[in-house]
Each structure stands twice: as C-alpha cells, then as structure tokens.
Amino acid sequence: MIDLNPACQGVIDVLAGVTDDQLTSSSPCTEYSVGDLIDHVDHVSRLFTALALQETDDLQRIATGPGAAHLDPDWRDSVAQDVRALGKAWDDPVAWQGSGNVPGSDLSNER
C-alpha cells in the first residue's frame, strides 16, 4: 500500500494559499487556468475515491470535464474535503484489490 495522505495534505496546503483572483490566471498546464486545474484535481479526487470504495455507479456519474465554472463558492473547503477523502479511502487495504472502470479506461487497483 501507498500512504496517499501526505501528498493529499500537500495539495490541501497549496489550495489554501490560492486567492479567488488567481483562479483565472494561467497554470503550468497551458490549456487550463488555475481554476480549471483545481476543478480537475477535485474531479480526479472524487473519481479515484469512488474507485477505492468500489462505487462503480459514482464513477460514471462523476465523469465531467474540468472547468473553473464547476467550482462552488466554498471550493477551498469542498475540494479539501474531496482530496482528504481520497487519502482516507486508499488507507483501506481492500481498496488496493480488484479493478474499476474510470470513464475512458479500465484500471487495476493493485500497484
């Protein structure tokens, strides 16, 4: 197993420092603004949490493209909760067994 919690906390720490006026700024990913990238991180966090919990219905429901327009007004708290949930979901050894279908590919949960 891999402990994802330290990396998740690092993401949460970075998010806490992002101001609302930075959301429209460019990011290292040229096709994404900072807000788009944050939404993408949130989206992927929810997808991989559902994968760990083997909630296949949620995997299909969560499938949307990134965009800052999807961010809630309280995005710092909601994205932090989703990233934190990702780390916690993968703490369970059962999460590392089997496989799941993330829209666009079949993934093995085993490392």
Structure description:
The chain is mainly alpha-helical. The protein has one domain. Helices cover 48% and strands 7% of the residues. The protein is built from four helices and two strands, in the order ααααββ. Strands 1-2 form a two-stranded antiparallel sheet. A hairpin with a 2-residue loop joins strand 1 and strand 2. The radius of gyration is 14 Å and the shape is globular. The N and C termini lie close together (8 Å). The relative contact order is 0.20. The mean pLDDT is 83.
Descriptive labels:
single chain; 7% strand; two-stranded antiparallel ribbon; mainly alpha
Brief summary of the model shown:
By secondary structure, the protein is mainly alpha-helical. Helix content is 48%, strand content 7%. Strand 1 (99-102) and strand 2 form a beta hairpin.
